[in-house]
Write a structure and sequence with these properties.
- With 250 residues, this protein is α/β, with parallel strands linked by helices.
- It folds into two domains: 111 residues, Tetrapyrrole methylase, N-terminal domain (Cobalt-precorrin-4 Transmethylase, domain 1, 3-Layer(aba) Sandwich); 134 residues, 2-Layer Sandwich (Methyltransferase, Cobalt-precorrin-4 Transmethylase, Domain 2), CATH 3.30.950.
- It has ten helices and twelve strands.
- The radius of gyration is 19 Å and the shape is elongated.
């Protein structure tokens, strides 16, 4: 009996790998983690394509009910589906760790995630520094972490993952993320964030109709990126090829 941690990609039901699909079809139970990302299709679409009933695993079930999932995997083949790649969120690392500690066989099937899909911007992946997230400002009024990470990254590129609350159908936009960074700048006054700063906004990476838009902060702030999910990049020091690639997205 095995716990399968399966990345299902960024877009639709068809983004799962062939290997992942074969495993899902044979499993006794199938869970879908529902709170760290967003697919561009419905659960019903997944169920029809996978020919399986899917149990939605919200944050509480995943973080507090993980022992139940591990217990089931001692007796059955259990698939735990994760939007994007398996290890993009620390929650899934904990599930893997718990399985190992309980001597439950666990198998990982990887897939695409935002962490590699940002390569389409032309910015070199190995030149990205520490990744950070921007939470909703009402939840963290004195927020400074994303600003501090940008500062620490120096000449490296900085990827900002934007907050989401799927249960409330609430997803941060690039426009709001920039406003938050500007609010932090207004307090810290260190000159990292200004209207002329080059930024790159990305929406729905890995999906049909994705958007990448590069330009001055003042330009990107006013741009409509459409439906979620969004992420934001502030480039660091660039090679001339990176600069040429960003010209394609202006």
């Amino acid at each position: 009996m095995t716990l399968y941690l399966i990345g299902i990609g960024l877009s639709t039901e068809k983004d799962i790998t062939v290997k992942g699909l074969e495993i899902v079809k044979k499993c006794d139970k199938v869970y879908l983690e529902s709170y760290t990302s967003l697919l561009q299709c419905s659960v019903k679409d997944l169920e029809q394509f996978y020919d399986q009933e899917i149990i939605i695993a919200n944050r509480e079930m995943t973080e507090q009910g993980d022992e139940k999932i591990i217990s089931e995997a001692k007796k059955k083949d259990v698939a735990f589906l994760i939007i994007g790649d398996v290890f993009s969120a620390t929650t899934h690392v904990q599930l893997f760790k718990l399985a190992k500690e309980n001597n439950v066989k666990v198998e990982v099937i990887n897939n695409a995630s935002v962490l590699n899909s940002v390569g389409i911007t032309g910015l070199e992946l190995y030149k990205f520094g520490k990744i950070t997230s921007i939470p909703f400002i009402e939840d963290h009024p004195q927020l400074e972490t994303p600003y501090n990470v940008l500062k620490e990254n120096g000449d490296m590129h900085t990827l900002f993952l934007l907050d989401l609350k799927p249960a409330e159908n609430k997803f941060m936009t690039i426009n709001v993320a920039l406003e938050i960074l500007e609010k932090i700048e207004s307090r810290k006054k260190e000159g990292l964030i200004n209207d002329d700063l080059l930024v790159v906004g990305c929406a729905r990476l890995g999906c049909d109709g994705f958007i990448v838009k590069a330009g001055k902060l003042s330009e990107i702030r006013a741009f409509d990126f459409g439906a979620p999910l969004h992420c934001l990049i502030i480039p660091g020091k660039m090679h001339f090829i990176e600069k040429e690639m960003l010209e394609l997205w202006k």
